Amino acid sequence: MGFAVCVGNASLASMELRWVRRSKCDDAPRSIPIFISTLKKDVNLEELRHLYSRCDHSCNRLAKNGNGIVDMKKLRTAISHSDVVVSVFCKPHHTVLVEDDEQESLSSKQNKDESSLGDMFQDVLPLAPSNGQLVGFGRAYSDYGLTASIHDLMVLPSLQRMGIGKLIVNRITRLLTSRDIYDIAALCFEHERPFFKACGFADDRMGSTTMMFTKSLEA
Ligand SMILES: CC(C)(COP(=O)(O)OP(=O)(O)OC[C@H]1O[C@@H](n2cnc3c(N)ncnc32)[C@H](O)[C@@H]1OP(=O)(O)O)[C@@H](O)C(=O)NCCC(=O)NCCS
Q1: Which residue range or ranges hold the N-acetyltransferase domain (predicted)?
Q2: Fewer CB in 10 Å around end: N or C, the chain?
Q3: How far does the centroid of ligand 1 lie from the alpha carbon of residue 211, in Å?
Q4: Do residues 36 and 16 lie in contact, with contact meaning Cβ atoms separated by under 8 Å?
Q5: Tens digits of residue pLDDT in 102-138
Q6: SS3 per-residue string spanning 98-115
Q7: Which residues partner with 145 through β-bridges?
């Protein structure tokens, strides 16, 4: 179980610094700072494309060229028309798992010493989108009046189960409900349901389910 400590206080702030902890490392809890931004200007499309690929997630589920291909033009349009975007950054050296560090061979010790110096330097710099790595993302679009839906939620695999995904969803839902939009849907796979349940989602009490348009473009 991960948890987060808020060091900012405005729940709807467009930028916020928090700490999250990996509880799996019981002997040496590893807390890392993360930076949450809801500003579209902080979305770097190349970094986002990289995150899609690291998370094995597709923003274009119906892409003819295969799931891994990101159409940057469509992605740019989608982001610019999204109602809410939430990006999470952390320092690049914090994205490496503790276990990975331990498995490094002795022959790489020199490199490790050098990178430790680099890490120390990185540690004293304040975390910001400009020096951070995009490690989490989520977006929602809405009609600005009644309904909204959440898309492209993802967290870098090495930082999953630290509470980052839940922070992103909470941020999205808080922004939407602050505008009196409560009809919020999340299109997800069966294995993602426990996560969305943990974020306060459930089966629609009106009994609706999702149906998808199936006619191909060629038809
Ligand atoms: C789904 C995803 C965004 C969750 O992000 P995350 O940061 O790991 O999630 P959190 O740490 O905030 O999890 C919060 C709670 O959700 C539940 N949960 C999260 N992942 C789960 C999993 N794989 N199985 C069961 N429950 C899970 C747990 O209750 C968890 O709390 P706990 O860790 O204290 O037990 C992440 O797994 C991911 O990026 N997956 C790949 C892309 C994807 O499938 N996106 C969803 C489609 S929109």
Answers
A1: 73-219
A2: C
A3: 24
A4: yes
A5: 444 434 444 555 566 666 666 778 899 999 999 999 9
A6: HHHHHCCCHHHHHHHHHH
A7: none
Ligand 1 atom with minimal separation from the 194 CA: 26
Q: Crossing angle, helix 72-81 and helix 45-54, to 10 degrees?
A: 110
Q: What is the separation, in whole angstroms, between the first and last Cα of the chain?
A: 48
The residue assigned the tokens 């969803």 is 169
Query: Distance between CA atoms of 37 and 8, rounded to whole angstroms?
Result: 12
Task: Locate 185 and state its tokens.
Answer: 């849907």
According to DSSP, residue 205 is labeled T
Q: Which protein residue's CA is at the shortest distance from atom 7 of ligand 1?
A: 165
What are the structural domains of the chain?
3-100+121-198 (3.40.630.30)
Question: Residue 11 — very low, low, confident or very high, per pLDDT cuts 50/70/90?
Answer: low
User: Which ligand 1 atom lies nearest to the CA of residue 160?
Assistant: 8
